[in-house]
Design a protein that fits this description.
Low-confidence stretches: none
Radius of gyration: 17 Å
Number of helices: 3
Number of domains: 1
Helix content: 25-40%
Strand content: 15-25%
Strand order of the largest sheet: 1-2-5
Shape: globular
Largest sheet: 3 strands, antiparallel
Mean pLDDT: 88
């Protein structure tokens, strides 16, 4: 049970974003020159870097709808840091890699 029944309320909204707001944020971060990801080897040393093409809002929202990109509220037992962010698993990023060095 992730959410106890006593906290489930009709039409409860914990967070809400407009498409225009999300589009501006996603495309200002990912739809310019593309993106990169640094890889760390088993010794904890940066060993490779991967690059991908720019990510449009259309591609990003498709990932959200397919469950590949998800919102992490950071609300879990033992977490003393307040944060929230959008995340994607490594397989998603790997599917977007166009070059690796």
């Amino acid at each position: 049970m992730i959410v106890p029944d006593r906290f489930k309320l009709d039409n409860l909204i914990l967070a809400k974003w407009s498409a225009d707001y999300l589009k501006k944020r996603v495309e200002s971060k990912f739809n310019n020159q593309g993106w990169f990801k640094c890889l760390i080897n088993d010794s904890g040393v940066y060993s490779d870097i991967e690059f991908g093409d720019p990510i449009t809002f259309k591609l990003w929202i498709k990932g959200v709808k397919e469950g590949l990109i998800f919102f992490d509220s950071g609300m879990y037992d033992g977490n003393t840091r307040n944060y929230s962010q959008w995340r994607a698993n490594n397989k998603y990023w790997e599917s977007l890699v166009t070059e690796r060095y």
